[in-house]
Write a structure and sequence with these properties.
This protein has 134 residues and is α/β, with parallel strands linked by helices. It has three helices and five strands.
């Protein structure tokens, strides 16, 4: 089980996001239970409308991308790929929005960037990847 922490997560995103334009969506790593207690998930809940109890999908100006189970265990590669596909479907359905992707899974969940970055190599054009993932 991965222990939740309130340590600063800024090293896991390429820029500090503290406000959004009306057409921007903050994409953060989440757990399937939707308990947004730490890292980027906490920021999403406190500032960008992520709803407690929603572990995947669009709420407020946030998109929860699950990298942990409801028991805070890492999800499988197949689950990451399925979540990526649902995320891309949402992105394409909201072409008027810009989705600001953080380094999902590379903080509290403990995935290596090399495990997660390739999932997003063919991201739609309205997804902004972390600078060093481009």
């Amino acid at each position: 089980m991965i222990a939740a922490t309130n340590k600063v997560f800024l090293s896991y995103i390429s820029w500090v996001i503290n406000r959004l334009k009306p057409n921007e969506i903050f994409v953060f790593g989440s757990n399937l239970g939707g308990r947004h207690a730490g890292g980027a998930a906490r920021l999403a809940k406190e500032k960008f409308g992520a709803q407690e109890g929603v572990g995947e999908g669009l709420t407020g100006q946030s998109y929860a991308f699950p990298t942990l189970t409801a028991r805070f265990e890492r999800v499988s590669q197949a689950s990451l790929e399925a979540s990526r596909d649902r995320f891309f479907d949402t992105v394409l359905a909201h072409s008027d929005k810009i989705f600001l992707l953080t380094k999902v899974g590379c903080g509290i969940a403990g995935f290596a960037e090399g495990e997660i970055r390739p999932l997003f190599k063919n991201a739609p054009p309205n997804v902004v990847l972390p600078e060093d993932w481009r």
